Amino acid sequence: MPLNLVQYIRDLPDWPKPGIIFRDITPLLKDKTAFAAAINWISEPYLHQPVDLIVGIESRGFILASGVAYRLGVGFVPARKPGKLPWKTVTASYQLEYGTDSLQIHQDAIEPKQKVVIIDDVLATGGTLSATIELVNKLQGEIVEIVTLIELTFLQGRQKLGNYPYRSLIRY
Ligand code: AMP
């Protein structure tokens, strides 16, 4: 790790509800050196290895994914909450503690066999990322890697990511 980025993560106990420690990345985003280091760390393997598209997950995933897409000179694709995307979509649902939620991606966002990296800020239970994997698979994209800045290892979300390569920078 180029910098000790963990010092830029603000821990907010009992937010948004009791028992959750929210990992706030806004101090990292605000610091030009830390933000650049995070984008460079995510991008580094793809400076010399082909990738076609970066998929970012609403909403903090968008910030990191668009920085990486710009760094690599490739396109950005948003995976969004239902009802936000204006064109034809594909949908994947995932389990929440109570009930389900879904994510959508535009039908024409990814061409078959395009090489895709999926990015979010935090891997917790893995539901969000597993739904995004399903969306990319529905469009027959090739998932090269999944990357998050933060991994909450005790929730074992990695197990929901199948055999796809996965990388995290900061682990709790
Ligand atoms: P999950 O689907 O359980 O892996 O949750 C991942 C999504 O929820 C990510 O998009 C995160 O932004 C958000 N998230 C879950 N837990 C936390 C946490 N403790 N701190 C910050 N964000 C979180």
| Mean pLDDT, all residues | 96
Gyration radius, to the nearest Å? 15 Å
Low-confidence stretches: none
Strand proportion, as a percent range, falls in: 25-35%
Structural class: alpha/beta
Identify the overall geometry. globular
Largest sheet: 5 strands, parallel
Distinct compounds present: adenosine monophosphate
Measured distance between first and last alpha carbons:
16 Å
The strand count comes to 9
Q: Please give the count of helices.
A: 4
Q: Spell the H/E element sequence.
A: EEHHEHEEEEHEE
Strand order of the largest sheet: 4-3-7-8-9
Helix content: 10-25%
Task: Summarize the model shown.
This protein has four helices and nine strands, in the order ββααβαββββαββ. It has helices at about 25-30, 30-45, 60-70, 125-140, and strands spanning about 10-15, 20-25, 55, 75-80, 90-95, 100-105, 115-125, 140-150, 165-170. Strand 1 (about 10-15) and strand 2 (about 20-25) form a beta hairpin.
Key phrases:
globular, five-stranded parallel β-sheet, binds adenosine monophosphate
Characterize the structure shown.
By secondary structure, the protein is α/β, with parallel strands linked by helices. Helix content is 24%, strand content 33%. Helix 2 (32-43) crosses helix 3. The longest helix has 13 residues, at 60-72. Bound molecules: adenosine monophosphate. Adenosine monophosphate (AMP) is lined by residues 20-23, 57, 60, 120-128, 157. Adenosine monophosphate binds at residues 20-23, 57, 60, 120-128, 157.
